[in-house]
Each structure stands twice: as C-alpha cells, then as structure tokens.
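Notes on consecutive records. When two proteins share a document, each keeps its own sequence and its own token line. Never mix them. Below: protein one.
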Amino acid sequence: MNVLKNVKMVLLRGDRSQKQVADEIGIPVSTYAMIEAGHRFPRKELQLKLARYFGVTVDELFFGEKGHETRTKPA
C-alpha cells in the first residue's frame, strides 16, 4: 500500500497540535491524524470543513494547487 502524507495539511497546521485542530473542527484526533498521515481520505463534508478551517480550497488541500484541470484537444 502506497501511503502519501498530506504535507499541505502539516504545513498549514503550523505550530498547532493535531489535537488542537481536531478539537476546533470537531473530529476525533485519531481521525485527523490518519487523514494527515495519508492513511485515510475524508468524505466530502469533512474535506470541505478542513479546507475552510485552513482557508484553502478542497482542491488545494487534497489534490494539489492546480486542482482538476480540463484538458482540451487542439482543434
């Protein structure tokens, strides 16, 4: 199993503890820790709650800064 840590969440969390962020969002610290470590991917509602907490978009937080780009074929 290839686990990819969510570095963006780690950076945005800064000096705050995982427990502090989890408490402020209203989720168990174990859930937050698993998401940040890449062992769990949150449902859409939690993705949005985390993105709002950190002041970024869901795409920025979970899918990279460019998000989902639509590719068009040359005419």
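Protein two starts on the next line and is unrelated to protein one.
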Amino acid sequence: MFSIESMTEVYIYMFITLIVLFIYLYPKNPLSPTISSLKTFFTSWKMILHFAAIAFILFLNKIELTIEESMNLKYDLTPLFYGWEGNIVYTIQNFFQNDILTIILVFFYVVVFTSLIIASFLVYLNEKDHKLFYTFCYAIMLNYGIAIPFYLFFPINEVWAHEPAGVSFLMLDVFPTFETEYRALSGLNNCFPSLHTSISVTLSLIALKSSNMKWKRIVLISAAIIIFSIFYLGIHWVIDMIGGVLLAVFAVYAAQRIADRDFKFGKRKTHYYAQNTDANETIQK
C-alpha cells in the first residue's frame, strides 16, 4: 500500500508532480516554462519583493502556533460548530470510505495542493501574464493575513479531534507520521477558515482568467478534489469550508483591485516619462 513517511518524501512527490504537470501543459518543451519563469523573476526586483512579502506572511503563519501557545486561551469553540453541524462530516466519511480513495485524497491534500501553488507562479510568469501573477501574489497574502487572526482568537479543533463527532483521522492511514512531520505547518485548532479551501478556490478563480485551457481544467478539478478531501479525511467542518470560500472570493476581488491599480499607475508613469522624453527631444532639436 502506498504511504508517505516523511516530509522529504512529500517534497520528492511534489517535484515529480510538477514535472508531470509541466509535461502535460507544455509537452513540446516542459523545461522552458521553468527556465523562462525564473529568468523573468530574478530580473525583476518588484517580483522578488512580492515573493519576499509572501514568504514573510507564511513565516507569520508558522510562528502563529508559538504565539497561540503563549496566549494560553481558555475557551474552545469546537462544541459550538458541532452543535450547528451535527454528524455531517461523519456521514460523508462513512459513505465514501475506501482505501484507494484515501490514498488519492491524502496525495491531493498534502502534495498536489502545494504543487499547484508553486505551479501558479511559474505558469503566469511563463505566459507573461504579469497581472495574474501579481493578483495571485496579493490573493495569497490576503488569504493568510486574514486567516491568522482567526487562528489566534477562534480556536476550533479539527473534526476528528472532537470525540462526539465520531470521525476518524484517515490521514494517518497513508501518512502515519503526519503529526510529527506536517503538524508544525497546521495547528490542530486552526480550522476556521479552511485555508485548503480558500487557497483552492483562489487558485480556481484566478485560473479562470487564464487563457491556458489545460491549466484551468487541472486547477478546477484539483480544487474540487482537495475541498472534498477536507471532509473525507476528517479534518474540517462544513462551516470551515464556507468560511474558506468567502475568504477566497474576498481575497481575489481585493487582489484584482490592487493589481488593477498597480498596472494603471504603471501605465500613467510610463506615459508621463514618454511625454517628458518627447518634450526634451523637441527642445534639443
């Protein structure tokens, strides 16, 4: 039976996934997108700064668990969510539970999810769609930036960890070392909103604006599978998913507005310099 034993294996599977993804997207020359994207990225200080901002937000998300421990909150909102939902997640898990499906969904939750985030940067850079690139950057920042305060002040445990729910943590069937290897990236009570949902929906909404039909298809199908996996694996509540969808819609809307403003400002700036250059050339003549 397929299993994942460490984060090293996760990174290897991510690398293989990215290779397969680019062979499908660009069959004639799958290496070209990566080379072209990296060349574009490392020659633009603006892109490097945006990537650094994302890295900083992700760093804050990682140390959020340390901050949360020091806060020593005494309340738990999990019973409230269970009272609203009852056994919905339990019903979903038991109806669909299957060993092969478990393997597929763990792979999508752990490997494909992060692979799609990385691929998004490369695809939009390779296709010279800088507006979508920056929209994606801003949307990622907003997703994490808005989610972190909820994780700090609204502790809600994963469904499997709430005993009355009767849900199994199927992740461990495929990734038995999840708690020691992956848990540092995702707190047990960091449920609402679901970032796997919000990022997946964000990926989809932005991909819909891409001209690459293959990319749209991959992202939309993968997002649907990942969102289903959060219930099947016993991780998130339905309310977490709803919160994730709302977060994604807002993040993409706001990111588009910011990117539009940046590009309009850039065009005005270019037009201003062009006018001044023409005027100086006229004076010199």
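For the record: Residues 158 and 235 are 5 Å apart (CA to CA).
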